[in-house]
Structure formats: structure tokens, C-alpha cells
Amino acid sequence: MTIYDLARKTGYSITTVSRALNNNPGVSEKTKKLIIEEANRIGYYPNSIARSLTMKKSFTLGVIFTEDLGLGMKHPFFSAVIEGFKERAEKFGFDLVFLNRYIGNEKKSYIDHAYYRGVDGVIIVCSDFDDPEVLKLIESDLPNVVLDVYSHKTNVIYSNNLYGSELVIEHLYSLGHRKIAHIAETAGSFAGKERIKGYKLALDKYGIPINESYIESGSHFSYESGYTAMKKLLSLDDIPTAVFASSDTVAVGAIKAIRDAGLSVPDDISIVGFDDIELAQHITPALTTVCQNKELMGRRAADVLINQINQKDDEYTGEYTAVVLPVELIVRESTKSIN
User: Which InterPro entries has this protein been placed in (predicted)?
Assistant: First the structure.
């Protein structure tokens, strides 16, 4: 089957069919859906070399992925995001290649590696947005999208961390809690800054004075930092009745510290996390948490990046897209009302 066969069967021009298969924004969603469904039905699969020559694209997307926990693709949050990105990109015929700072044994910049691989665009998932090599790539003419940060220099996708924090405090307040602590991510990440800001704004909204001794560091969203921070909170003369952890991994560490101190969650202290990783619903007690739609984040990132790639072929306006994804509170067993 060729693209000519697909055009004939759908009744659209070859140009429209090609644009639809490559998620070009100039084709309506209804038309894209019809053409893609027909392509799947007849088993259309374009020759990659011919397609690259015709479209002047490699149909390859680069992935820059670094995180501070050293977990790589086992990272409970970003692994799901990248899976959503991968599924969406593959739907439009793109393959992924992971980019690092080396070509062979020679150290290179990310942008050098991207050009060496001939990728059409790059998704950036990294904890250090201020890395000079990352900034160099963002400021290049190569289409890119960055996750979990805010920038006016490129396309960004992130969750509504401020509102998520407000949902947490609203929930705990409704249960009667007034002594609410926060284990904050203090390594400088955008998400961490937004969550502690949202925590303080929500306390103010509900007329709860900010107690600085109730704010402890949960650096890099790690289990160990959650455990250590919770031990410090438990050493206070007036311990909190509830704790808002900056991530689910931090919350799990905090729960372990509470148990080691001979206390119980939620009977003695309520705990709320953020992210809704897979583990959250399986631990005991099941964790109340703010759900970020990880798969949606990945899919939207792919759409934004592919749209920019396609616009570059036509007439790119130079405008960037900022997508703020909704969040929701998932109430499970780790929170309860106090007397």
C-alpha cells in the first residue's frame, strides 16, 4: 500500500493525507482521525527513507532525561510521562532516541548530539533547567518542549502545582487540622517552589498562621529526605497533626519515620502526597495524594512538539505554547478527621 492508495480510499489529496499522518495543525481532528483509521485498516506503512526524503524529516525525536534520584527510567513519575510521550509520538510515525553528552567516547553538548542524530525535535525532562547545555539547546532553532518547568523561551508543559497545594490544605482543613506541616522540595525545582508557595497561600486563605518550624526540607523529592524531615518534625514540642509531603516518595519516607516513632498514620498524623505514583494506592495505608495525569502530560508534550516541527515546515510564528494541566485530589486512607 502506498500513500496514493490511502489518498484514493479516503478521498483526500496526497498533501492532506501526508499532513494528517504527521499531525499537522492545518488538518482538522476529524479528518486526521478518518485518515489514520483508514491507514490502520488497510495496513499502510510508509517507507521511512522515502518519507524522510520527501518530507525532509528524520521522523526521530530526541529525549533528554536527567533526574537527581539516580533512578533513570525507573523514576516513578517521569517514566510514565515518557511512556505517554512515546505512545503519542509513535502514532504519528516518530521514533525516539535518548540523547546524552557523549558521541562515542567524546564529550559533546546536547545540541551537538541532537544535530549528529538528525532529530526533528527534542523533549527535555530534567531537574536542572539552568544547566548551560540545556539552555543552549532551548535557545537553538531546534524545536523543543520542556516538562515540569515554566519558561517564556520555549514550549512548556506542567501541572497546576499551586492549585494542587490548595486542594491539600482545603482537605486537611475540612478534617479539622490546623497544625499542618510541609516537607518541601528545596533543591530549587519549579514544581517544588510552586508547591511551597501554594501551601503558604492556602494557609493564609484559611487563616492559619505560617509556622516556619513546620516547613522542613525534602530535597530532590527523595524517600530519604522525607524520612529525615519527618523525624525533625516529630522532635518538635508541638508536633503537627497533618503533613503535606511535596511528593509521594517523600510521603512514603515520612510514613516510615512516623511508624518508627511508634505512631500511626492516620490515627496520630495524617499524610498527603503529590503525584499519585503507582505505589501510592498499594502502600498501607493507601496514600491520599494529588494526582498529576502523567500520561496526558506526555501526550500533550508530543502534540506540542510535533506541531512546532510541522509549523517550522510551513511558517512558524515564533510563539511558544505553555500548557498547564489540571490536577485532582485522590482521597484514600492516610488522612482522617481529628477530634
Answer: HTH_LacI (IPR000843), LacI/GalR-like_sensor (IPR046335), Lambda_DNA-bd_dom_sf (IPR010982), Peripla_BP_I (IPR028082)
Closest CA to 94 of 321, 317, 302: 302
Closest CA to 148 of 210, 97, 195: 195
> At 103, which helix (H) or strand (E)?
strand 102-103
pLDDT digits (tens, 9 = 90+) for 302-335: 999 999 998 865 555 567 889 999 999 999 999 9
CATH number listed for the domain at residues 55-158+294-325: 3.40.50.2300
Fold exhibited by the domain 161-293: Rossmann fold (3.40.50)
Fold of 3-54: 434 Repressor (Amino-terminal Domain) (1.10.260)
66-98 pLDDT, tens digit per residue, is 766 565 666 778 888 999 999 999 998 899 999
pLDDT bucket at 212, cuts 50 / 70 / 90: very high
The answer to whether residues 221 and 249 touch, using CB atoms and an 8 Å cutoff, is: yes
The closest of 221, 215, 339, 236 to 289, measured between CA atoms, is 221
Centroid of chain to Cα 27: 27
Other CB atoms within 10 A of residue 13 CB = 10
